[in-house]
Every structure is written in structure tokens, then in C-alpha cells.
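Regression report. Comparing outputs from two consecutive submissions.

Submission 1:
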Amino acid sequence: MKKRITAPREVLHELQQDYFICTKCKICQAVHVQFCADSRFWRNCPSGTRFRWDAYYASGKMEIARGLHIHEIEPSDSLRHVLYTCMLCSSCQEQCYEVKQLHPTRVFELMREKAVREGWGPMPEHEPLRESMEKNDNPFGVEAAKRGDWAEGLGLKRFPEEKAEVLFFAGDAYSTDPDLFPAVRAAAQVLLEAGLDVGILGAAEKSDGALMLLLGDRDFFETYAFENIETFNSLGVKTIVTPDAHAAWVFKEEYTRELDPSIRVRHVSEVFDRLIRKDKIKPVKEVPLRAVYHDPCKLGRRFDIYDPPRNVLRAVPGLELLEFPRAAFNSLCCGGGGGVPYAFPDYALWTAKERLYEAEWVGAEAVVTSCPYCLQMFRKAVEAAGSSVKVYDLAEPLLASLGKEV
């Protein structure tokens, strides 16, 4: 039997009970309304809300899965549009699972894998991402040699020449987008302030492959997973810490089958929370800010990481923590999920602007989040809307409260 590299492979028909049982009750089309006081914010599905056809909601895509299974329908451009405008945010599954124990998000992920295997997915606009992966080991067109530039001057150890207990994995977006360098530098600096023994791979860091998996290309994802697992297992580290919510997702959910079981995987929000509780870092400087925290889909609904980032923000003196009407398990996607921005940028921006409107609704001066793609989408929305709302990574107000600058 061939050894599996990552999580057990599934194919769409293995979830046939889910899409045959779905009764189109439409509970997947709204948030848990008992936790959202204003009906203006009851909608939860970006694609269904934007395109206004049942096919774009989870119930419609479940029917499409059934139709593909029984060969009642064939792949088409319109079907592909339905499938790749889904942000895979799992809000539909959040609603459905508690009532019917169905897994619509998993169905849609496997529909994408089917599309890639059969040659009708992903979108043509996604091809440059794949080409860049093959050329640069990242999807965003940045030369591999520049991947460690964000860490210049921080004094972080470099693997494999040096040894350290903690591997800090920056991730694709943080290490290639200069606008995100202050955020990732802040995260690394907080860990250093706590006295942790931290190292990075620098230019040797390769893509985690998460974006390829989101698009349905599991084979390509696994080539990166395999290389990374071999690298991680060879470093002798005790913990992998990443600020990238998507990297945390694949490391925790996909890599752990073959990753050395002695290695812990943590998102920085979990580490920051623990460091504060253990008095390893002490936020003392006031950061006067009315901020609302946005839950990244891959941290919140995927791993129930809701409290740690909020605990961090509550520990920052002078920061007033607000909540979105759609908060925690009810959160609306930022617009950056599922590879959508690279094929449908206008629709992705439309979603981000809706979330920005919600931040302004509660009187927030700033949005704080823990995902690079959320940061990118909020900043695009702020620019497009001419808003005065600031956008920060979780590490930035925390570092400021420690009296440090990036």
C-alpha cells in the first residue's frame, strides 16, 4: 500500500450521503441569527449574496454535486463559475453541521479536486499562480532568493546553518508582499522579546502549498507538502510557529500525518496568548485604539481559534475591543478566501467592502486580524472606499504595547 503523504485522500463520491441527504432547507444561507441582533447582517454567503442564484449558495452547490454524481449535468463554464466563486469560508458548514451533520465545505473542496483531475478547473486566471510556484516556489511571482528579505536586521537564526527550538514560518504572502513586512517583522519581534529561541529558513523557505490545495490541485500541493515535511523533520525543532492562517491550516490538518509527532504546530495568536498568560511578555504601553477583530476563516471555523487573539487584544492597555455584528463563528469572509481574488478581483473587493462597512457600523477606528490575505483585502477595501479605518495585524498593537517599534 502506498504511503500517504498528507491527509487521507477522499473523492467526491465518498461524500454522496451528504449531497443526497441535503433537503435544501436553506439554513446554510444565514448566520446563527440568535447571535446577530441586526437583520442587516444576517446573510453569510458571499457568492450567494452577490450572484443571487440558488446555485451559488451551499444548497445549490450540493445539488450540483448530486447532478455530477448521477451524470445528470456536465461541467460547463457556468458550473465552473459557481464552483470557483465559492470562498470556502465554511460558514455554510457552520450552520449545517449542527443541525444535519453535513459537510458542504468538504464537498466543495472535493468538487474542485474532481474539476482539476478532469481538466475543467481551476480558472484560467489561476494559471500564473501555478507557473510562479514552479519557477519561484511561491505563487506570487517573487524570486525565491528574496523570500527571506523581510527578516533583514532582526538577528533571527538561519536554518540549517544554525539550530533553534522554534521554526518561524513566514508563509507565502508575508514573505513576498513588502506591504506585509511590518506585520511579519512585528510577529517575529514579539517572539524574540519573549526570549524564545527562533530561527527561519529565509530564502530556503518554500510555499506551504495551501493555495494550490484550495484550487483543488492536491497533487501539486503534495509535492510541496512532502518537501516541507522532510525539511521540518530534519531541523530538530520543537515547535513550528506561523503568522499565516493558511499555512497553519495545512500544517495542522494536512501535514501532521507525516510530520514528526514531537513537533507542535501553532499559529502566532495561540503563542502570543500563552506568552502573556505566562508573563513572558508584559504589555504595558497604552495603545489608544477602538479596534474590531476579524476572524480569519481558516483559524476560526476550521480550528475554533477565537479566544486567543481576543485575549491578546484585551491585554493591550488602552485598546478598546469591539465586535462585528457577524463575529466569531458568524464571521463574514474578508473576500480573500478560496483563491477568489486572483480570478474575480471585483467580486472579492465587493465582499471586503461589505466587511469594512460592518466595521464602520460599530464605530471601529481599526480592523485587526491574523491572516495576510485578510490584511490585503481590508487594505484594498479601505483604499477603494476612501475609508479612514486603519488595518493592523495582531502582532502590531501587541508589539507597540511592549514599547517596541518595527
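Submission 2:
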Amino acid sequence: MFMPFDFLLRLLTSLATVAILGGGVYILYQWYEEALLSNRWLFLGWGLILWSFLGFLTILLLRRAGEDEPKPLRSHRVQRLTQSDGSEIHVEFYGPDDAPTLILTHGWGPDSTVWYYAKKQLADQFRVIVWDLPGLGKSKRPKYRDYSLEKYAHDLKAVLSLAGEQPVILLGHSMGAMILLTFCRLFPQQLQRVAGLVLVDGTYTNPLKTTIFSKLLLALQKPVLEPLLHLVIALSPLVWLTSWLSYLNGTTLLTTELSGFTGRETRGQLNFSSLIGIKASPGVLARGVLAMFRFEETATLSQISVPTLVLVGKSDIATRPVASQRMRAEMPQAKLEILAPGGHMALMERNQQFAEAIREFSWTVFQPKSLN
């Protein structure tokens, strides 16, 4: 998930990738020119080059294999929505059409295939609707390069229209939770048909304020981070290439584990989460991070009167639990549940506990609706 802290880690790994590969090439060249005479330099140079392309294998082999590893599965039940800005939203449906409906909004960086476990574990009892944010997955980019939270809130409103007239639960993870809060501010009348909200590993303000090292990152936002993100937009193809090299040498796997997991994830979960974030254009991702810097919904919290479940991984460093605690305190009908052990990707690492929390909350809020 590309919250600002995660994106900064990825950029740092890109620099490390250039250093590892460039260092290997430079050592071999110096050995060839006889500036370095010992064959140890030859072995070191080739070692760095081989690690640049095969390091990920060593890291993955050191992780345990899981019984059910995530896969980028898609549904054959699909609908596409065309928006006025030229973007097209790819929407998928799972579960019985007449079952209570959950609409799942993923975070920034991956696509709706990140809901691998949730779809399998919830679609037996619920109608599960997932969608790809425009610019990611199978949804087309907007023409005017608008990746704001407000734009995605309008897209969510369009997806909600596909659910029919029955009450639904809106669930958002990471930036998806931020989109839900923006949706509540822009379309309060739509909450009449929303049975409940589930905010997972989210925040209510600029994510730099609620992430690890927040004071340092806030100080760097204007002079360093924003210019750096604009540079990523300008050099998007080059950054995309270094991102793939970072995966091959294993540094992306390490940063994904650091920012998203607690070390208890399986080999497949780590690999899936690392790969899913590389597919998207770095330019698109950078624009989304810039949009998150402008996010501010603190005043919205007290205005949300629908039942809300706030879920957070106990060890989440991308959006620290303090943000979820603040949301629970200010939202009139909110309750907080902490997934432990769990990080920003607890929905995957703790998938059974995650699904059980969603299932229990959903039946609690749907049953009173069905009696009315």
C-alpha cells in the first residue's frame, strides 16, 4: 500500500538498486582494466550483479510457505462504469445477488485483487462488490490526471448505484478508508442507505501526521517530498524500471515486510503484496500521494452517524493506531478493534481474524435494517 511512508521507502530502495547494480558493474570494469588485481574483486562484482537479479529468491525461500497463498483472481461477473472525466471503473461481483451487500475499496497502489482472502471468506454469506480505483488495475485513468480523494468519492457513489436499493456496508482499507470519509462529507444524503462503515488502517488527515517519523516527514514535505514526487512523475518510466529491479534484488520485499507486516506473513503473502504495488505507473502513484497530502476530514468525523467499525493492525507504522483511536473517539457510533499481531496489511496476514470481525459487525448492523 502506497501511503506516503511506503512510497518514500520504495524510492530509497530504487537508489539502493542503482548502487548495487552499478557497484557490481564498476568493480568488474576496474578489474578488467587491472586497477583491481585480486580475483576476489571479480567474485564480488559478479556477486553484486547476480544479487541484483536473483536476490529475491533467497529472501522468499527464507519465509514459510502458506496453505492458501493469495493469487490475482478475478470474477467473470463484471460491469464497467464510464465517468464524465473519461475514466472507466472496473467493478466485480461475488456471492449471491440477494445477499446483504459489502462494497470494498482498496488502498493506493494495489488493485481489487488485494481482497483475495476477503472475497473467499465473505462471499458465502454476503454479496461482495469490489472495484479498481481509476488509474490502477483494470480501471482506466481519468483524462485530466485527477487522482484526488474527491474524485474517487464520486466514483464510489457510482459504484454504490450498482448495489440496488438495499442497505450496504462500505469498507475501505488505507486510502480506501480516506475515500470513505470524503464520501461521507460530499454525499451525506447517501448515508441513508448505508448500514455501516468499516475503516481499516486509515486516517482522517494528511497521512504524514499519523505515520511513523511524522514530525520529520512533515518538515520534509514541502522542501523535499513534494519536489521528489514531481520528479517521479517526470521520470516515471525510469522509476518503473528501477522498481522492478528493486523487486528482483529483494529490497522491495524487505520494505514491504517492514511497512506492511510483522514477520508472520507467508512467502506468498509477502511476494503478492510486493508485486501488486509495482504494476502501477509510478507517475500515477506519485499523483495519488500528492493528493493525500491535501486530505483533511477531521471535522467530518463527528458528522458521521452510521455504525462504524474501525479496524487497525496493532503494529501498523504507515497509519499508526493513534489515528484509529482518534476516529473511534470522535465518531458517534464507532467501535475500535485492533488486530494483533498485525501491521498495515493485517487484512492479509491476519485474514481470518479480519474476516470474522467484518462478518460479526455486518450481521449486527444488517439485522436491524432487515426488521424495518
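Expected: both submissions complete independently.
Actual: both completed, but the second showed a warning that disappeared on reload.
Relevant detail on submission 2: The first strand starts at residue 78 and ends at 82.
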